[in-house]
């Protein structure tokens, strides 16, 4: 399959990912955290901005996604989705690494801002409200992700744009 455009996935870092959301990890900016649990742990607070932008009342939904591994490289982007009214957070429970694909935009993704990152198992991510992204992509093994988002059951919970095969962009994934 030939793709009109290719991008390369880079290692996930807080600085590179900042336009799209936050990287969830211990000490993302080198802060020492604070002692917790009688000195047996370090606590890192306020790692992400979490927002519910809906005018009505949406319920906070804590769910788990079990994702089958995808090893295709290049990985074809068949669709992107966004959640206009809510931050969405994903935290892997058992991953070695996974692929994160994001783009900015309004009614449709701005593909000039399309970026791909390879996240380590010790990193979670948030998508800011309205950030276009691909659904979770486990790379090496079946992976469970904890997901946190505000939802009200309306069609606005998740907006999807699908791409025909000739429009798809491919993501190169380093082994």
TrEMBL record:
<dbReference type="InterPro" id="IPR047233">
    <property type="entry name" value="UAH_cupin"/>
</dbReference>
<protein>
    <submittedName>
        <fullName>Ureidoglycolate hydrolase</fullName>
        <ecNumber>3.5.1.116</ecNumber>
    </submittedName>
</protein>
<dbReference type="GO" id="GO:0050385">
    <property type="term" value="F:ureidoglycolate lyase activity"/>
</dbReference>
<keyword id="KW-0378">Hydrolase</keyword>
<dbReference type="InterPro" id="IPR024060">
    <property type="entry name" value="Ureidoglycolate_lyase_dom_sf"/>
</dbReference>
<dbReference type="InterPro" id="IPR007247">
    <property type="entry name" value="Ureidogly_lyase"/>
</dbReference>
<dbReference type="InterPro" id="IPR011051">
    <property type="entry name" value="RmlC_Cupin_sf"/>
</dbReference>
<keyword id="KW-0456">Lyase</keyword>
<dbReference type="Pfam" id="PF04115">
    <property type="entry name" value="Ureidogly_lyase"/>
</dbReference>
<dbReference type="GO" id="GO:0006144">
    <property type="term" value="P:purine nucleobase metabolic process"/>
</dbReference>
<keyword id="KW-0659">Purine metabolism</keyword>
<comment type="subunit">
    <text>Homodimer.</text>
</comment>
<dbReference type="GO" id="GO:0000256">
    <property type="term" value="P:allantoin catabolic process"/>
</dbReference>
<dbReference type="GO" id="GO:0004848">
    <property type="term" value="F:ureidoglycolate hydrolase activity"/>
</dbReference>
């Amino acid at each position: 399959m030939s793709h009109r455009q290719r991008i390369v996935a880079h290692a996930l870092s807080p600085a590179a990912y900042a336009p799209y959301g936050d990287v969830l990890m211990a000490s993302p900016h080198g802060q020492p955290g604070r002692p917790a649990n009688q000195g047996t742990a370090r606590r890192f607070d306020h790692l992400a901005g979490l927002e519910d932008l809906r005018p009505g009342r949406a319920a906070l939904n804590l769910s788990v996604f079990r994702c089958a591994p995808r090893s295709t490289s290049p990985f074809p982007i068949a669709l992107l989705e966004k959640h206009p009214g809510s931050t969405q957070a994903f935290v892997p429970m058992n991953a070695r690494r996974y692929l994160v694909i994001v783009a900015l935009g309004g009614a449709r993704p701005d593909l000039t801002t399309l970026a791909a990152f390879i996240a380590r198992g010790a990193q979670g991510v948030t998508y800011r409200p309205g950030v276009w992204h691909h659904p979770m992509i486990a790379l090496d093994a079946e992976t469970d992700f904890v997901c946190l988002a505000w939802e009200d059951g309306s069609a606005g919970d998740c907006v999807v744009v699908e791409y025909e095969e000739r429009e798809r962009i491919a993501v190169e994934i380093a082994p």
